Amino acid sequence: MLKDMGNRSYSSAKNFAVVAAIFSSSECFIEGYRAKNDIYNGAAAGCFTGGVLAAKGGAKASAFGCAGFAAFSTAIDYWIRHSD
Prior knowledge:
GO terms for molecular function: mitochondrion targeting sequence binding; protein transmembrane transporter activity. The protein is mostly helical.
């Protein structure tokens, strides 16, 4: 049972690393391209990440992935920027 839990934890860690790598690299690229550090970079990177992760499901899944991840990224970015 402990070995199975370790295997599942390792798999989850790999998936999280893939999501984080896609999001952070796309946000860095977008920020460098726009030469601005604002909330729109995270929204665009979230849209790209969600779309890429849902691409196997087709265009509709990619659109929903884009919208969902962009909304989540924007909300987190807004909260971080406005928490004093």
